Structure formats: C-alpha cells, structure tokens
Amino acid sequence: MAEQGENGENPLDIDGSNFNPDMYLECLMKCATLRQVMDKEAEIVTQSQFLQSEMQTLVYENYNKFISATETVRKMRSDFIIMQEEMNKLSENINKITTFSGQISESLKESGNNVSRLCGTRQLLDKLQFLFLLPSQLNKAILEGRYTDAVHDYTHAQRVLQKYGNQPSFQSIQTECSEIIYGLKKTLRDRLLSPETSASELAESVGLLRQLQETDSSLKEIFLNCAESRLDKHLQTLNSIVDSTDILEWVEKCNDTLLADLGIITSCYHEMFQEEDHTDIPEFADKIMLQVFHLFEEVAKRPENIGTEMLIRGLDKFFRKLQAMTEIISSDTMSNKAVDVVIQCINHKATIQYQSIQTQFKESLMKVRQSLASKGSETTDLKDILNSLQVYFMQKVQASLLDLMAFLQNTLSFGLKAWCAKAVADTCWKVISETMANLSDMVKKMACLQTSNNNIPFELLLILAKLCLEMQENGVTTLHSHLVKLLEEAAPGLTLENRDTNSVMVHLSTAAQAALDSEVVFIGQTAAQMLRVSVLARDWLRAPEPRGPRAVCRRVVETLASADSAASQLFPTSIKPSSDSSRRTIWSRAPSSFSPINRIFSERIEVFSPAGADRAALSNGALKVALKALVECVRLRTFGRHGLQQLQVDVHFLQQRLSCMGNDERLLNALLEDALASAQLRCVDPQLMEPSIVDIICERG
Amino acid sequence: MEEGNSIIYGLEHQTRALSPQYESDAIRFLIGTQSLKPQSNQVHVVELEEDTGALHTKVFKHDIGEIWHLRCSPHDVATLLTTHNAYDPNTSQCSMGVSIYKLPTVEVIPKDLDDLSAIQGRNAEDMELLITITPEKPEEEIRCAEWHPTDPARIGVVYETGVVVHDVTTGAAAGGSGVGKARVKFQGGKWNPHQGHCQFAVLQDMHIKCFDTRTDCSKAAWSIDNAHRQLARDLDFNPNRQFHLATAGDDAALNIWDYRNGKEPIFSRTDHSHWVWTVRYNTYHEQLLLTGSSDARALLTAAASVCRDQDDEGARLSQVLEDGVLQSYEQHEDSVYACEWSAAEPWTFASLSYDARLVLSRVPRHFKYKILL
C-alpha cells in the first residue's frame, strides 16, 4: 500500500485516476467497523448528489453561450456589406487625386528646370572666378609664406583644370598655375635642402610636396636624406663638444637638438607615410641612435665625468628623454639599448672603481715596500702595516659599493626598475670579486717574481699572504653581508642571488699559499745559497783547526731568525717548542750508521713542500731548504780532519741556534745529522771532536 | 721483472756514477763507487736477464780513486771512461783524473760453475787501464768526461774552469781549450749529438753555454741564460730533435728548451721536491724523460706536447701521452744522483742513489702500450 501511495496512483484514492472501486470496497470492508461503513456510505451518497447537481449547472451555462455566439455571427454578416460599398467610393477618389497631381507637376516642370540651370551656372561662375583668381591668390599666398593655403587652393582647382585644360581660356590659367606651383615646389625643395630649416618646417614642406603629388618614394628618400643630414649635423656638433663640455651640458644639448628633431621627424614620418609599411624608420632611427649611444658612452667615459653624482644626473636626463622617445619610435632595440646604456654606465663605473682600488692599493703597497726597504723588519711593526692595508682595502671596497648604490636612488627615472637593481647588485658583486681576484693575481704575480729576482722584501710577502688569508676568512663574507645590507636598504625585495664566494676564496687561499711558499723558498734559498757558496768555496781538506763557528753560520742564523721574527708577528704559533731537549748533542751517530737501514725508519723529508700558514711551519720550511742544501753540498766536498771538525762546530752551532725556530726538532736534527754524517763519509780522516770542546768553541765563538 | 716491481741491487759504498753499456744486446749498467778509503773503489757491471728477471753482476777493481763520473764508450762495448778523485796523504791533497779502461770480458752471466763461484765470491777482477789524463794543475777539479759521439779517439773533459777535448791515444789536448777562462765554475757538460758533433754544451751556474770545439772556446756558439732559477745540474740533448734539450736544476724544475729561442722553456715541470741532479731522454721515445733528485725519487715524465709533430719519414713515431709524471719511483732512501735508460732495451732504466742502491725499473706496461699501439 505504501508503495502504491508513493507512486501517487493509489487505487484506494477516491479522487485518483486509478481508483479501483472493488479494491476500495474490499479494503473498506476489511478495515472499517460497521458504523464507519455506514458513515462512509452516507458521505459518499451526499457527495455524489452534490456532484450531479453541479454538472447540470455547467451544461446549462454552456448552452446559453452557444446561442449568443450564433446571434453575433448573424449580425456581423449584415455589417460587412455596408463596408464594401464605402471602400469602392474611396478608390474612385484616389484615382482622381492621381490625375490632378500629374497635371500639376507637368505644369511646374519647366520653371524647376530653369531654376536648377541657373544654380548650375552660378556654381560654374563661382568656380570660374576662383580659377581666374587662382594665380594671383597663389602668388599672394606664396609671397606671404602661406604655403599650406596655396597648396590647398591649388589641389582644389587642379581637378577642374585637368578636365578643361584643353580649352584656350583655361589653358593659360593652368600654365600659369603650374608655373607658380613649379616655383612653389622648387622653393619647398630648396627649403628641404637648406640647412637652416627646422625639423617641423621640414616636415611641413614634405607634407606639402606630398600633396602636390610628388612621387612618394623619391619624396621619402629626400625626406630621409634631409633628416639624416640634419641629424648628422647635430651628431657632428655633439661630437665636437664631447671634449669641451661636461656630461650634463652634453645631455641637455643632445636632448634639445638631436633627440627633439629625431622625435619630430619620426612622428611626421609616421603621419605622412603611415599607410606604407614603416619599416625603415626605426631602422633609420636605430642607426642614428646607435651613434648617439656611442657618443654618450664616449662622454660617460671621459675622465671628467667620473663623478658619480654628475654621471647619474646626466644619465637620468638622457634616460628620461629616451623613454619619451620610445613612445614615438616604437622600436624594441632602442628601448633595449636605452636599458643597455644605463647598465653599461653602471658597469663602467664599477670597472673604474675596482681599477682605481687596484691602482691605489698598488701605490700603498709601493709605500709599504719602500718603508720596509728603508727600515729593518725589527723596527717595523708588520701587524700595523697589515692592519692599515686591510682597513684601507676594506674601506675602499665599501666606499665604492656605496657609490654604486647611488644608481638606485628613488628620484631617478631608472632607479626603481628591477633590471637596474639587478645590474647594480651584479656589478657590486663584480667589484668585490674582481677586487679580490686582482688582489690574488697580484700576490701570485709577486710570489712568482720573488722566485726569479729578489726585489720584493719577504716581509711584504708575509703581509700579503696574511692579507689574503684574512680576506678569505673574514673579508669576503663581511663585504658580502655589507652588500646585502646596502641592497636591502636601496632596493628592498631584491635578493642577491647566491654568489660564488667559494671560487673567490679559493683564489685568495691559493694566492696566500703561493706567497707563503715563495717566502719560505726565498728565505730557505737565501740561507741555502750562503751555505752552498761557503761550503763549495772553502778548502776543507787543509782547513785549520776550528776556532769557532764560521761567520756564514751566523749569517744563516740571522737570516732565518729575522724571517722567523717577521713571521711571528703575523702568524703567531700557539705551541712553543720545548727548549729542554734542544741542547741534545747530535754527534752520537757513528759513520757506520749511515746506512739504508737507518733511513727506513726515518720519514722522507719533502724539501720544497707547501708551507703552512703558521710561524713554525714557515720556519720549518725555510730550515729544510737551507739545511738540505748544506747536506748536498757537503757531499760534493772532501774533508780533512780539521775540516770535518769545523763542520761539526758549525752543525752544533746551527743546531743550538735554530732549535728555537720551527717546531719540528726531529726534522732539524735529522738534517743536521745527515750533514755531519755525510761530511764524515767524505772525510779522509774522520775523527770528531769531543762534544765538550765543541760546546766550548761554540760558546766562545 | 713484473709490472711495478723494481729490482734493487745494493753496493757497499756510496755511489754517484752510472752508465748504460752501449753496443750490446744485453741490459747492462756500470756503476762506480765513491769511497775515500784507499783501494776500495769498484766498478760494478750489472746485467738484467730479461727472460728470467735475474740480476747478474761482475765487479772490477778501480784502485785509482773514487769514481765521480763514469761513461761507457758508445763505440766499443768493453771500454769505459771514469772521472776519479784520490787523496794523497803525503801531500794531503786530492787529485782528479780521467782514465780509460778496458774490461777483460764483457760477459756477466756465468757460463759454468767456476764462473758462478767466482762471482758469488765477489772477487773483484782487474781492468786494463789504457790511459789516464790528469789536469795541468794538479788540484784542478774535473767535473766529468764525455765520449765524442762519433770519434772514438776523442773525449771532452769538463774542468772546473773550462772544457778540453783530449785525444785518448796520447792524452794530449786536441782542441777546444777553455781552461782557466771561465770565472764562474762549470758544473758539467755534454756533446751535442747534432750539428756535426763539434759542439760541447756546458752548465755554468744557472746558464747553459755551448762551445764549438773547433774554435778557441772564447765565445759560446749559443747559450741559454738563466735556464734555471738556481744552479743548473744536468742537461741532455733530445736524440731526435736537433734543437731540443732538457735541463734540470736546483729549482726542482725539469725544463725543455729549443735553444734557438732560449728565452722561455717550451716545457717546464716542477714535480720534484728538491734539486734535480740528472735528466735523461729515452733514446727511442723522446717523449719519455727520466729525472733523479735529492728528494730520493726518480720520476718518469712524459713531455709529449713538445714531441708532437711528424718525424722525418712523415709518419707518427709513436702515440703521444698526456704531459706530466707517469710514475714516481720511490724505492730510494737517499738522493738519486744518476739515472740512465738502458741502451739495449727501450723500456728499462736504472736509477742510482747515494746510499749505494741501484734500482732497475720498467716503464709501466699501459704507458708502453699507449706509446706502441
């Protein structure tokens, strides 16, 4: 039941279309009490009676309506007959009206014709009068310089003249007019070619000529030629004043003359020849602009215009004008070029900055060199020199970064552009990296030079090495963060892309290493050279009994000590070598111990090896170089007994004095032992002195 | 001798002198000892048996003094030249000289048991002394003596102060006398194998000077000034390219020069960590160079970039290698003062250190194949 109810087709719904009386009855019988059935019956009977009476009323009403409609139809039929008659009358009247109007128009036709003929004649006469007056009008206009009016009049008359030109009366007018116009054209052309005409006059003339039906191509050519020659003249003047004016003046002049004219010419050109494909005007403009840019670059690069403030103001003016121009000359290359000009200026500025930093730094280095040369390293404080150099260097770089930030001022036409900010950020970083690279290169070059000649004091190498290391450790990051801060202030939101600080640092550290190596080799070689010459020059075979260490040993010790003390100022060592074991005597090794077996247990000594940035390591390096040379030279000589003993004294002296330098006592002893052992091998009478005597001799000497 | 394995031969005394034996099919090297003890110096002949890798030696007495320099004759297999020094206790003076010896026998590998026992006993044999040349001034030092490349009768002797060409039959000076003329001492020298065999190049301080022995040697035929930043220690001419030579020096550098333009080396490497005492071109493959240094290393270096053009026949002589050190031989424990390529076999070489250790090594096989294939 519920399903049926849901379907809306309940067969038990007495008002539904699917009413099933049997089912309803059945259902009622089943569900209801007798009384309810009785009630229901009564209810149904009343309802059906009510329905029946209602139906009867409806039938009656409809019948009435039908009868009244029939009557109306009948009435309409009689009315239509009257209407027909009236319509017939109307058409008759209309026919009459038509005939009358025909008669009237026929009678008026003649006078109308006369009137129109008279009007025509009148117009013709006007035109004729205009024509007859035309030559004088033209002359008058031309005399007064109203070329535009003259051309306007002439173009009006020309059509007529062409039509009736063969009639004698007009012929004279036409010839006269053509002559005048020919003259006019000539004047206009003259004006085109004359250098005094302004760009607007030029444009006007060309426009007129064009109206006078000059062929377009030749006209365009003339126009372009004239424009070009004018612009060329401007260019020449601008070129000639490059050397005599400052950038502001130059830019003003350029804006007022060349760029203004170029703007007029370009806009005229577009107006006049716009129906054509205007491909060649940007090209032509580009050509001119290229030269302008070229000149501007020249101006910007002149040394007088190096002042940032002035350069920026000039650049700003120039760029403003260029931006205005790009609205007229819709050429991409030109707007790109304008951006390029600014970027180039920034780059140029940066280049000057780091070049000047370099030259200034070189000068200050020169001063340091001189002061080092005039004073000994004992009297000069290397640390002070290093500090002043470093501070000077950092300040210079920071100042130039700040200087470059001027390009990002809000008031400038390009100051807020993203590309400008990017260019400034790039160049700033370039200033930093180039400066560092220059520093590294310079140090490397000096380190290289050092090995070939001895002009550069070793203290300077130490200072430079330290400077490079300082830069690598702190300088680069300091400058980098400084730059980031500056950029944050000047152009918020601009992120400095991750710069390759690593390669800069690698450069610096290799330079420092080169300088250190060079210093070590220089000191070592100096000492080695002394030892070599002294060993090779001496006659060891017939040497007298030793009375003290040879003078060369003192000099070697002095050389090494001065380098050590210089290094100690810049590269302090935390660990001091212990001094208690330094007095150990080293002649315990018998000559027989000079065998491969002994060497197996000792480490291989790399003589020319990279030096560490540490006082002890530097001294070790120099010691190695010097003493290894001693070993090698001793092996080339033959010793007598006293010669050997002299060497013993020397070695002992060196051991005493050098053990306070460096921190590798094993190395020092090994090399000195080697020297003494080699001398023993090369001795014809190998008898060493008593250690106590050696001690005494050393102290006495 | 397998790949990477070197053969070591030890001697009793310090050694500086080493020479390959020329004109022979066997891989033989001669070593001279350097000892100031009288009657203790020897010449060792070392032969490497290629098939078995066995090492055979024969010892000869060299009682005339310690050997500073030794060259085998390129003309005769049994003849050798030693530069020696001896101490005379009576005058307490050292005197140097150059002697030419002839070996009684060239054979080293024992043929029978007697031979074997003789060698095992290391009984030093005698050599035949042909001539001894002594300097005019007795205390004059002799640096080295070199055989003339083509004339067996002539040797060039480098004194401290000059070069003299001696006739080996008479011992007389046969020309090219520059003795006493050089203010800066000479270190050593060599015949130029090109240019008609009359040029002798010497090492003087940092410079290389080459004299024409037909003149009075007052003026150098050509020179390379400042060939090294420190003392120049050795030079060797490229056997195939007539203007190329290699030099080694105290700046630890190996330089190759075209002496027509002696301003800049055409090849330079600093791979050693101390003075380089010797440099040798491989006779067959000029791109292979051997250097010995007092950092106790011998380095095999390829200088292919300067040997890159065509040889005389227009064909590629050999495939080229990358420039640089091919192999470092670290078996030495003291300074390597001499190293030599074998004259008989292009891939074998010997290096000699002061601690009396001879190391026979080979060019690593992959480099060999790279060159050959």
Automatic annotation (TrEMBL), chain A:
Please classify the protein's predominant subcellular localization into one broad category: Golgi
What InterPro entries does the entry give? Cullin_repeat-like_dom_sf, DBL_dom_sf, Vps51
Q: What is this protein called?
A: Vacuolar protein sorting-associated protein 51 homolog
Name the UniProt key words of this record, in alphabetical order.
Coiled coil, Golgi apparatus, Lipid transport, Protein transport, Transport
What family does the entry list? Belongs to the VPS51 family.
Instruction: Establish whether keyword Transport is in the entry.
Output: yes
Annotated localization = Golgi apparatus, trans-Golgi network
Q: Name one Pfam family in it.
A: VPS51_Exo84_N
Q: What does this protein do?
A: Acts as component of the GARP complex that is involved in retrograde transport from early and late endosomes to the trans-Golgi network (TGN).
Q: Subunit details for this protein?
A: Component of the Golgi-associated retrograde protein (GARP) complex.
Q: Does the keyword Transport apply?
A: yes
TrEMBL record, chain B:
A Pfam family of the record is Beta-prop_EIPR1
> Where are the bilayer-spanning segments?
none
Q: SUPFAM superfamilies from the entry?
A: WD40 repeat-like
Q: Which InterPro entries match?
A: Beta-prop_EIPR1-like, EIPR1, WD40/YVTN_repeat-like_dom_sf, WD40_repeat_dom_sf, WD40_rpt
Taxonomic superkingdom: Eukaryota
Q: Where are the WD repeats?
A: 225-267
Q: Which residues form the EIPR1-like beta-propeller domain?
A: 5-296
Looking up Gene3D superfamilies in the UniProt record yields: YVTN repeat-like/Quinoprotein amine dehydrogenase
For this UniProt record, give its keywords in alphabetical order, as a comma-separated list. Answer: Repeat, WD repeat
Family classification:
Belongs to the WD repeat EIPR1 family.
Q: What is this protein called?
A: EIPR1-like beta-propeller domain-containing protein
